[in-house]
Amino acid sequence: xxxxxxxxxxxxxxxxxxxxxxxxxxxxxxxxxxxxxxxxxxxxxxxxxxxxxxxxxxxxxxxxxxxxxxxxxxxxxxxxxxxxxxxxxxxxxxxxxxxxxxxxxxxxxxxxxxxxxxxxxxxxxxxxxxxxxxxxxxxxxxxxxxxxxxxxxxxxxxxxxxxxxxxxxxxxxxxxxxxxxxxxxxxxxxxxxxxxxxxxxxxxxxxxxxxxxxxxxxxxxxxxxxxxxxxxxxxxxxxxxxxxxxxxxxxxxxxxxxxxxxxxxxxxxxxxxxxxxxxxxxxxxxxxxxxxxxxxxxxxxxxxxxxxxxxxxxxxxxxxxxxxxxxxxxxxxxxxxxxxx
Length: 341
What we know:
Protein name: tRNA 2-selenouridine(34) synthase MnmH
Radius of gyration: 24 Å
Largest sheet: 5 strands, parallel
Distance between the termini: 47 Å
CATH architecture of the largest domain: 3-Layer(aba) Sandwich
Number of domains: 2
Structural class: alpha/beta
Strand order of the largest sheet: 1-5-4-2-3
Strand content: 5-15%
Number of helices: 16
Oligomer: single chain
Number of strands: 12
Order of helices and strands: EHEHEHHHEHEHEHEHHEEEHEHHHHEH
Organism: Miniphocaeibacter halophilus
Helix content: 40-55%
CATH topology of the largest domain: Rossmann fold
């Protein structure tokens, strides 16, 4: 027998697997974190079925849907049989908890594979995120790391996380470093809905706790931070990280100076023409052709990044100089350890 649970109840289940039965394109646009995709209809099939529905040809739409999925039923059954042997709770969802998940659920029931449907499907899940995001944001106290580009904030956060401290890495979730060159060498950014979901999963882990987080602009690439989180970061415990320009240049060169990044760097420099002079941009491009990455990194730090971000925060609770990541991590822990008792 099929059970339909709210997402609130789903979150409490142990040993579960979430299965998104929407099309691969819908899945790519955004899903529940850790869900896998076993589509009832593929992209073109969903489009054709949807067109028939919109024309009012309901029976034709259902017939096409049945014809489309029937050829994949043996593979789908095999996939679910394997999951049944691994997980206690099989949770399926479609867009709104309608035809796709209901039909597949009935099929699984007939083969003695018990399953749970999410009430309202992905839309029900999204409503849960929207209605609860600000609550969980309000229940954390950020300890925000600020500092100029290349000062090692991300490495410090990684160190803190390895040592067991609560950390939310916004740039990792957004797949972007938060600067004009922030996408260089990285995969495509998630859609906003997917970022919201990933952020929610992280924030909800740390209710009533202090959390280390990196200071960011309102936008990280194409991603927007929740307004409440952005405001809360600006009025929390603020830490300034400094680093000698030589160390910053070394760190940036190590991160960006890879042959396959060259075209992306070139495109980013050309994009910067709206912020820097054509002469400065041309000098950077010439240096790029000559593989003079140290020059590029230093010029961008001094004449672009440092000026652009100099007035983001005026008052800091603590300041540290990062000459060694392990050392400065321990210094930060020493100054903030009373918050975690």
